[in-house]
Design brief:
0% strand
């Protein structure tokens, strides 16, 4: 068979919006992601925040250890991977929670979020009293 330029051509994203979308990130398996999160905390967070964050990561990964629903697992890993990327890039400073994500949270998750907020406020009060 004779090769022609038409057969050697490769498709491009010209004229489509596919070239404007960011490339999807590869999803890390649970254990490497867990290690990356702890390393990220160690490198980028102050000690007080790191201790609180490490406890939370450990409890979340432990509570999701026996989940069988693949959709739930992919969502869990994707959110934690995006969290690691935000911490590594300092884009999390001063960022507010997305309202759509809050609307999707269960009552238990909202309770955990409220407890986290209270713990942060308590630490801020204690640090301002020590100063």
């Amino acid at each position: 068979m004779k090769l022609s330029p038409r057969l050697l051509a490769t498709p491009t994203a010209a004229g489509s919006t596919a070239g404007l979308k960011p490339a999807p990130m590869a999803l890390l398996p649970p254990i490497p992601l867990y290690r990356r999160l702890l390393r990220t905390h160690r490198k980028f967070l102050p000690k007080e925040m790191r201790l609180l964050g490490d406890e939370y990561i450990k409890s979340e990964f432990k509570s999701h250890r026996n989940v069988d629903n693949p959709v739930h697992i992919i969502g869990f890993l994707t959110e934690w991977q995006m969290y690691a990327q935000k911490i590594e890039g300092d884009s999390w400073l001063g960022e507010k929670l997305d309202g759509a994500k809050i609307d999707k949270m269960s009552d238990q998750q909202l309770g955990q979020l409220y407890e986290l907020m209270q713990a942060i406020q308590k630490r801020e009060r204690e640090s301002s009293e020590d100063s």
